[in-house]
Amino acid sequence: MQSIFGDISYKENELMSRHTTFRIGGPAKYFFTPETDEEIFKIISICRSNNIRFLIMGNGSNMLFSDQGFDGAIIQIYNNYSIIDVREDGIYANAGALLSRLAAIARDNSMTGMEFAAGIPGTLGGAVVMNAGAYGGEMKDIIEYVDILEQDGTVKRYDCDSMEFGYRKSIVSRDKIVLGAKLKLTKGDKALIQARMDELKEARSSKQPLELPSAGSTFKRPEGYFAAKLIDDAGLRGYSCGGAKVSDKHCGFVVNYDNATCQDVLKLIEQVQDTVEKKFGVRLEPEVKIIL
């Protein structure tokens, strides 16, 4: 039977555990890795006209998928859509480019500004959507403009102010798809840039449980507090549910230490929320994107 997607290639029943840093998730009915703007829009249009649920993702570094999978289309904007263009005053890249790769290219071209992002395991698109940040830097600090595919198929350019960046949020919604962005960087000393990247890499490896599957920081930072400290002070360091555990190394991370299921993680998140709220009156909000 002829596919409704025509000549667009895709995989069927692709396990999402293969495409998330949590290493958790059942099969997606359709799994796409588009290469062009046109292909992305065509897939989305077909999904909309056929009432097929769809989800855009990067490399799955901030996502938790259901063990039952995803009954719809996953559109992964990643390696196949990751052209990088180095310019005099910065870098333009497609949404699928990894932040770590962009930071390395910036360094190699003696451009400073991206050092904070060198260890963030996400794509440019995902980082723009959530205004990703670390060690005092955020994407809004280096974004000049973002090219977005609108629901009607047109591509609109948004300057940084128009993106309405906030803490782990932006103007991007389900009806807006990040296609690429221009990063404004300044000339710097390559050795100093490398030294700063090395410093942040050491800080990450010494403080974060990078040796175990996770989705990074599990909870957003509540105003006036630090999530990890609240969890630690609540006596939850090392607390586990099934194969999921609050990291002994950094309480802000829930890790998959023993073949955890999505339900293990969700149960642990809820118990952490309830315990912290009971002890300190603060309800922690998940930073990880939960797809059920």
Describe the secondary-structure layout.
Elements: E1 11-15, E2 27-32, H1 37-49, E3 54-57, E4 63-65, E5 70-76, E6 84-87, E7 90-94, H2 99-108, E8 111-112, H3 124-129, E9 133-134, E10 137-138, E11 143-149, E12 155-159, E13 177-184, E14 186-187, H4 190-207, H5 227-233, E15 240-241, E16 244-246, E17 254-256, H6 262-280, E18 289-291
Parallel strand pairs: 2-5, 3-5, 4-18
Antiparallel strand pairs: 1-2, 6-7, 7-13, 8-14, 9-10, 11-12, 11-13, 15-16, 16-17
Descriptors for this entry?
5-stranded antiparallel sheet; alpha+beta; globular; 25% helix; Uridine Diphospho-n-acetylenolpyruvylglucosamine Reductase, domain 3; 3 domains; single chain; 4-stranded mixed sheet; Uridine Diphospho-n-acetylenolpyruvylglucosamine Reductase, domain 1
